[in-house]
Write a structure and sequence with these properties.
Elements: H1 2-21, H2 27-47, H3 51-57, H4 66-98, H5 105-114, H6 116-139, H7 142-158, H8 162-169, H9 173-218, H10 222-260, H11 269-276
Helix pairs in contact: 1-9, 1-10, 2-4, 3-4, 4-5, 4-6, 4-8, 4-10, 6-7, 8-9, 9-10
C-alpha cells in the first residue's frame, strides 16, 4: 500500500517537473474552462426558467418532453467536444516533450485540429452514453440510480486512455475504447495511484492557498479580508489549472510507456520498469 502511495507521489512530482518545462501547457485547461463556461451560458441563458431547465435540474426528475433530451444531448456533446479538444492539445504537447522535443501551444492546437473527426465522433458517443445514464438515473428508484452510478464509473475507467489513443493513433471511437481497455489492463494500478498522488499534491496546495484568506480574516479589518480572500481565489484557480494539466501529463506518460515501451523524458526509468515488470 505504502509503495503504491509513494509511486503515485513520484508520478505527480515527475509530471510537475514536466509542466515546469512547458508552462504554456496551462493554456489548454484555461481555455477549456472558459469555453465550458461559454457553452453553459449559451444553453442556460436561453432556457432560464423554462420547463426544460426545471425538468433537468430539479429533483433529478426525467423530462417528459423528448425535446428536453435532445437539448441535454446537445449540451453534453458541446461540453465533451470542448474538453476533449483541449485535452488532446495538452496531451499532444506532453508527448512531444516525452520524445525529447520542445512543444509549443501551436503544436498542441495543430495536433488537436488534425484529430477533429475523431474528437467529433468521440463527443457523439460520450454524449449518447451520458444521456442514457441520465435517463436511467432519472427514471429509476434508488437501486437504479446506484446502478447508473456504477455504470458511469465503469465507463469512465474503461475510457480512461481514449484521449491519448485518439491523439496518437487517430482511430475511431470504438477502436479507441478497445485500445483503452487493453492499456488499462496493464496500467490500472498506476492510473489509480497517479490520481491519488495528484489528489494529495492538490490538497496540500489548496491548504496553502487558504493561508492568505485566513490571515486577512484574522487581521479583523474588512479591507485585509477582501484582499486575502481575493488572493486565495486567484491561487485556487491557478491550482485548478495545474491539477488539470498534471492529470493530462500523467495520462500521456502512462499511455506513452504502455504503448511504446519507452520511458518518457523527465520520468524515472526505474519506476516505470518496476511498475510494469509483472504486466
Amino acid at each position: 500500500m505504502f509503495e503504491r502511495i509513494s509511486n503515485g507521489w513520484e508520478l505527480a512530482k515527475s509530471s510537475y517537473r514536466c509542466l515546469m518545462l512547458d508552462k504554456e501547457m496551462l493554456v489548454f485547461p484555461l481555455l477549456s474552462g472558459v469555453a465550458c463556461l461559454a457553452v453553459l451560458a449559451s444553453f442556460a441563458v436561453p432556457l432560464m426558467g423554462s420547463d426544460y431547465a426545471r425538468a433537468i435540474q430539479e429533483d433529478n426528475q426525467a423530462p417528459d418532453d423528448p425535446l428536453a433530451y435532445v437539448i441535454l444531448f446537445l449540451f453534453y456533446f458541446c461540453n465533451y467536444f470542448v474538453i476533449v479538444f483541449f485535452n488532446s492539445g495538452l496531451i499532444a504537447c506532453a508527448i512531444i516533450r516525452f520524445n525529447g522535443g520542445d512543444p509549443t501551444v501551436a503544436d498542441g492546437f495543430r495536433a488537436a485540429a488534425a484529430r477533429l473527426p475523431q474528437i467529433f465522433a468521440w463527443a457523439l458517443v460520450s454524449a449518447t452514453v451520458g444521456v442514457i445514464l441520465k435517463a436511467i438515473e432519472s427514471r429509476s428508484n434508488r437501486a437504479g440510480r446506484i446502478a447508473a452510478g456504477l455504470l458511469g464509473m465503469a465507463w469512465g475507467a474503461g475510457t480512461y486512455f481514449v484521449v491519448p489513443v485518439l491523439v496518437v493513433e487517430k482511430v475511431g471511437p470504438f477502436a479507441a475504447i478497445k485500445r483503452s481497455l487493453s492499456i488499462l489492463r496493464r496500467t490500472w494500478g498506476e492510473a489509480l495511484v497517479s490520481n491519488f498522488g495528484i489528489g494529495l499534491f492538490v490538497f496540500l496546495m489548496v491548504l496553502a492557498c487558504l493561508i492568505p484568506a485566513a490571515l486577512g480574516v484574522l487581521t479583523g479589518t474588512a479591507a485585509a479580508a477582501v484582499v486575502g480572500i481575493g488572493i486565495t481565489v486567484v491561487l485556487l484557480i491557478l491550482v485548478s489549472l495545474v491539477s488539470s494539466a498534471l492529470n493530462g501529463i500523467v495520462l500521456g506518460a502512462l499511455y506513452f510507456y504502455a504503448a511504446e515501451e519507452r520511458v518518457p523524458t523527465q520520468f524515472d526509468a526505474g519506476f516505470f520498469r518496476d511498475a510494469f515488470v509483472s504486466r
